[in-house]
Amino acid sequence: MTIRIDRRSFIMTGTLGLGAFAVPGFAQSPTVSAARGFTHAVASGEPMADSMLLWTRYVPVGGDTAELRVDLSETPDFVKVAGSGVQITGPWRDWTAKITVGGLKPATVYYYRFVAPDGSFSPVGRTKTLPAGPTKSFRAAIFSCSNLPFGYFNAYAHAAARSDIDLAIHLGDYFYEYQTGDYPAAKDAVPGRVPEPATELLHIADYRLRYASYRADPDLQKLHQLVPMIVQWDDHESANDSWEGGAQNHQSEEGDWNARRAAAIQVYREWMPISDEPWKAYDIGTLATLFRTETRLLGRTKQPEIAPLFKSLNIPKALAEFRDGKWMDPAATMMGSQQEDWLAHALRASVKAGQRWQVVGFGTIMGNTVMPEAAAGWIAPDAPQRSRNYVLAGIAAAKVGLPLNYDSWGGYPAARARFLRTAQGAGANLVVISGDSHNGWAYDLKQDGKAAGVEFAGHGVTSPGYESAIGIDPKTVAAALVGANPELKWSDTSRRGYMALTITPERVSNDWIFVDTIKAKSAAASVGHTAVVSRGRNVMA
Questions:
Q1: What pTM, to 2 d.p., does this model score?
Q2: Residue 503 is inside which H or E element, if any?
Q3: Distances (CA, A) of 496 to 71, 87, 145, 440
Q4: Which segments in the chain show pLDDT lower than 50?
C-alpha cells in the first residue's frame, strides 16, 4: 500500500498620537506599482543598546534615485535631533532604504522620520533601544504564520495597542507564496483579503509585489511603526518546505531553484528591517541574550522522507531500519556546521558573561512529538484522503518512536542532540521560541535523559491548525498529544494569536494570547495559557 504523506494538507484545510499614515487597499493593481512618495510607512529592527536600523520605502515622482535622510529624537516634535543618517535608494533595491543610526542611549524610546529630497516627511515611527546593564524586566511579542487571505491580522493589532511591549519578534512565514485559491481555497478566504500577485511567487518582481501587498495591511504596518522587530524567515518567504537545494513547492518547470532562492533572499532583505547578517546575537542588558538563527535556505539538508517506506511488504521493519539508520545521520543539519559552531560559541560566551537567560529563536519546533494512536478517530468525515493517510502513517511511525513531522527538528535528531548537548555543557538557562506549526505548544526539552531547556512554540497569526482537518473537540486532541509525548506539557490546536514572553532575572513566563476572531476586524484577545520556568531548572514550574 502506498501512502502519500502531506503535512501541510493535514494542518491546512494602541494609538500613540503619531499621526495618520497612508494604507493602500488590497485591490492594489495598479495602485502599488503606481504609488509615489513614502508608500509603506516605516519600520525599525536590529535593536542594540546604542543603535537601531530604520526602514522605509520612497518612490520619487521623477527620476530613478532618491537620497533619503532619517532623523531620530526623544520627542515626537523633533525639536532636538538625537541622531541621523542618509542613504541613496532606487529601483535596484525596489526603492527601499535601511539606515542604521548609532550613538543612541540604551533602553530609550526614540521617534524617527525620513526626509525626502523634496522636503516631504514619512510618517513618524517609534522605536526603543535595548537596555544595557542590570535589567529588571523585558517583554517581547512573538509572531509566526501570517496568511493574509485566511483572515485579519488582529494579533498584530492587539500587540500594537499594548504599552508594555519592548520588542516584536517574527519567527517566519511572514507571508505565503501561493497563488490565489491555493491555501486558502477560495471558499476559505476572507472577502477583500486578496494579496498580489495572483500567481505563485517565482521571480523578484513577484516577491516584491507580495511584500508590498502584505505591508499594505494597516495592522501590520502599525505594529512595524510602533515597535522594533527582529525577524527571521522560515519556508514560505521562499517556498513551502524549502531547504538549501530545493523545496516541496518548487518544481523543475518553475525554473532554477537557486535563482528563486536568491530572489526570495534579496527581496526579504530589501523589504524587512533586518541586516544582511544571516544570524545574530542581541544582548538584553545583563538579563538575556537573544539569538536569531537561520534554519532554511543556507545550510539545511533535505528533509528525510518516509513515504517510500510504506511500499514495503514489512512496514514496521522498514520504519525501524529508517529510525536506526538514515534518520540518525549526523550529516543531516538544520543550520549547517558554520552556524552550529557560531551558536555553540555564542551560547558559551553568553553564559560566561553572566547573562541570566539564553533565548534561541528557531523557525520550526524542536520538542519531540509523535502522533497519538487516538488520532485515527480525529479526522473529519469529509477530510481528503491524503490527510487520512498522513494520520495513519504518523500512527505507524510513532509505534517505532518516529515523529510526525520531518520538516521540523524531528527530521534532524542528531543535529538537535548536538545543540541541546551544547546548551547543557555551557550551563545555559535555555528558552527556545519557535513557530511554523500554527498551534500552541509548551515543551520541557531533554537530552540524554537530562533537562536541557524549555520551548515555547507559537500559534499562527491567521494560518489554521489541526482544527481545520479534525471532527472532534480540540481539547481532546490536545490532551491526546500531551499524553503521547513526554516532553510536551501543554498544547492548543484550534486558536490563533501570538505569544508574549516576559523575562526577569529569576524567571521567564510566556503567555499564549488568543484573538477572539480572525474572520472580522477586532483587537479583542485574551491570555489562554501561561507557562513559567525558573532560572537554574530548565523545566517548567
A1: 0.94
A2: strand 497-503
A3: 37, 39, 10, 9
A4: 1-30
